[in-house]
Amino acid sequence: MSLFNVGEEVIIQGKIFKGFNGMEATITYVSETPRRMVGRYFGFVYKTSLDTDDYLYWEEASLRKKHKPSTQSLSTMIEELNKVRA
Fold first, then answer.
1. In terms of CB atoms within 10 Å, which of 21, 30, 46, 51 comes out highest?
2. Interior CA angle at 67 toward 65 and 73, to 5°?
3. E strands along the chain, which residues?
4. How far apart are CA 35 and CA 48, in angstroms?
5. Which residues of the chain have pLDDT under 50?
6. Distance between CA 78 and CA 47 in Å, rounded?
7. In whole angstroms, what is the distance from residue 81 CA to residue 86 CA?
8. pTM (2 decimals)?
9. Which residues contact 7 (CB under 8 A, 6 or more apart)?
């Protein structure tokens, strides 16, 4: 089972194409089965909305989940955590 799904927002954080690092993208393709890529990597591969090259794929290690911002203030979250500890 892949870590990311089509339509999911991610942040690029790769070692090879460093010019993309920090950019936000949307997953547009997920391989059906794990594949071997450059080097020893074996896993699912992805295409994103940033890809302009048909041969540019991302491995799972190069992608980070983009978390949605909280709807609560920091003080409210701390209060709730303190209630759980008590």
1. 46
2. 160
3. 9-12, 24-30, 35-36, 42-43, 45-48, 58-59, 63-65
4. 17
5. none
6. 38
7. 9
8. 0.70
9. 26, 27
